[in-house]
Design brief:
Helix 6 links the parallel strand 10 and strand 11. With about 400 residues, the protein is an alpha/beta fold. Helix 1 runs parallel beside helix 2.
């Protein structure tokens, strides 16, 4: 699907979509809990559907009414060799893989080629030490061997999703475990979301020293009714329109949230100061929209960008490629990105989504200034299917073109 956006101002009030980070975690915990639990605020996004598919693969029944899902849960086991369809969702893959091995010894995880390419390298090395065999094909990962209790050490410079997967699984094992995260620890706020959700469902995780977690085995998830709070990551994509003369207000956001991306409001303000410097180590998902906003505001330097390479696209390189079409140049280095000052111009070429929802949102912001057409815009459905509907509601002219 190609989408053309004409230049214009975004004005109005929009309710924040539910937090994908919270929704994933709440649904998995509700599924693992005994008894009945409900989770509200579940969007019809591809990532949420992938999580529900994998919950069903675990043999846990659920019913869905609107944006509410009711689980009659408890992990009882599933047939060896069960297929877990993860679509394009990295969090689904990394959350479910250790959980699946907590009770059974064999499973197959399928997904898009880019997802498998992004990989589970941390699990490969960790599991090999524990006697678990993990083999990969272009579109699947097969694991064989049951997850044992014990000590696990991971580096803090990788995706927090690996840490979260282990935090979900280790309480289910027969013995006690220790999970150590080696510094520097990036994306700690995502780990804090996991700890918050685990507490709500009755799971005890003790942080006896910084980034070292003691987890008792034989714990049981308690049933609990919960709602996913508003998503700061996606809200940032609309708040950025206020830098282009827009007047956008987002409701339903928790100002005291542990979501790391709540810093988006402060980061956007910083872009209007001289020579702004912004660290993305704890909020990598903000990278694309902040790069776009920096291009509009006259440039900025970003540090802590290394992990943008392992997202749905190589986000720093993808944004540099697309910004060139607007006459803006970006310097991409190992762990920093510099958006050079320049004059925005209307792109003569069609823009490329790089099959990445965050890139689509960032390009929409740029197009509101100059106009432009985005190819592969359906990628936004991964996390926010109604994104373009929201832009229309805010007064922007959105046209759907034949690709």
């Amino acid at each position: 699907m190609n989408v053309r956006i004409l230049p214009g101002r975004a004005c109005g009030t929009i309710e924040a979509p539910p937090s994908k980070s919270y929704a994933h975690r709440l649904m998995l915990c509700a599924a693992l809990a005994g008894g009945e639990s409900t989770v509200s605020g579940i969007a019809e996004s591809q990532d949420m559907l992938a999580t529900l598919d994998c919950i069903e693969a675990l043999g846990i029944p659920y019913t869905r009414t609107g944006n509410m899902v009711t689980f009659k849960g408890g992990l009882r086991g599933y047939p060896d060799g069960t297929v877990f369809p993860c679509r394009e969702s990295g969090s689904t893959l990394r959350f479910f893989l250790p959980v699946a091995l907590a009770k059974q010894g064999s499973a197959v995880f399928t997904g898009a080629e880019r997802l498998i390419e992004r990989g589970v390298s941390i699990y490969e090395s960790l599991f090999a030490e524990k006697g678990i065999v993990l083999t990969k094909d272009t579109d699947s990962i097969r694991v064989c061997g049951k997850l044992p209790a014990g000590e696990y050490t991971v580096t803090g410079g990788i995706s927090s999703q690996f840490v979260t997967g282990l935090l979900f699984a280790l309480p289910l094992l027969d013995g006690d475990s220790i999970l150590r995260i080696l510094p520097p620890v990036e994306s700690r706020p995502y780990i804090d979301i996991t700890l918050d959700v685990l507490r709500r469902f009755g799971i005890c995780v003790e942080e006896r020293e910084e980034n070292c977690f003691y987890i008792c085995g034989n714990q049981h998830y308690s049933n609990h009714n919960a709602a996913a709070e508003g998503d700061w990551s996606n809200a940032a994509a609309l708040l950025a329109f206020n830098l282009t003369g827009g007047e956008v207000c987002i409701t339903g956001l928790n100002e005291n949230s542990v979501q790391g991306d709540r810093v988006c409001a402060e980061a956007l303000k910083k872009l209007k100061t001289p020579e702004p410097l912004i660290n993305l180590s704890d909020c990598p998902d903000l990278g694309p929209v902040l790069f776009a906003a920096a291009a509009i505001c006259g440039g900025a330097r970003f540090t802590g960008t290394r992990r943008l390479r392992i997202k749905e696209s190589d986000r720093a390189a993808a944004m540099a490629e697309e910004l060139r079409k607007f006459g803006i140049f970006a310097e991409v280095h190992e762990n920093d990105v510099c958006i050079r000052p320049g004059t925005m111009q209307a792109p003569s070429d069609i823009l490329n989504s790089h099959n990445d929802h965050r890139i689509v949102m960032a390009l929409a912001l740029l197009c509101s200034v100059t106009g432009g057409e985005i190819a592969g815009a359906e990628a936004v459905c991964k996390s926010w299917p109604d994104f373009f509907g929201c832009l229309s509601a805010l007064g922007l002219e959105v046209c759907y073109e034949a690709g």
